[in-house]
Amino acid sequence: MRPLERGTMERKYAAELMARLERAYPHARTALHYGNPLEMLVATILSAQCTDERVNMVTPGLFKKYRRPSDYYGAAPEELESDIHSTGFYRNKAKSIQGAARMIDERFGGKVPDSMEKLLELPGVARKTANCVLGNAYGIASGIVVDTHVLRLSGRLGLSDKKNADKIEGDLMKIVPGEKWIDFSHWLVEHGRAVCKARKPLCGKCMLSDICPSPENTVRFP
Question: Given 83, 147, 171, 183, which residue is catalytic?
């Protein structure tokens, strides 16, 4: 089934989805562990192509060792690479973290920026990372985080037929009220992990099965 036409019907459909998801996951939040905006930024960079569980195994020791931006860019690249090796793509991630940390000190007075425009200036930071930092560390809703779960569920639930994360985000922002942007991504992530799994969605246990338009939906209603 193609996504619903942009308009009243789709907004009503999205509202019903949100109401059900909120009831199911009232305490949904990011799975990444962090204590401040810098830690949120680093954890999000590390989460690319890596599970949150793995990141959370690495960050306790990392955050004890690297407490300030200067700790990151002052370390030898090989040392930081070794510390984050198990998260994968460690050379690129170390380069992004060190570049971002240096810019935070030199351009932003040692404080992780709290605006989308400034965050996007940091090396290795695209909209997903910026949205994660703004929403989780600052409580600022500048957009909707589109990770692999949100990307997958947006298609299955008929909310977007796009494949590009930025375009999916644009579609979602048109039908999800701004005050729900942060929570909405958390709800979809929780649902993607618990029920609407990538390989085999558990449609028989899904509270959305009676309205889900996905061809993969194995539960049908008259």
Answer: 147
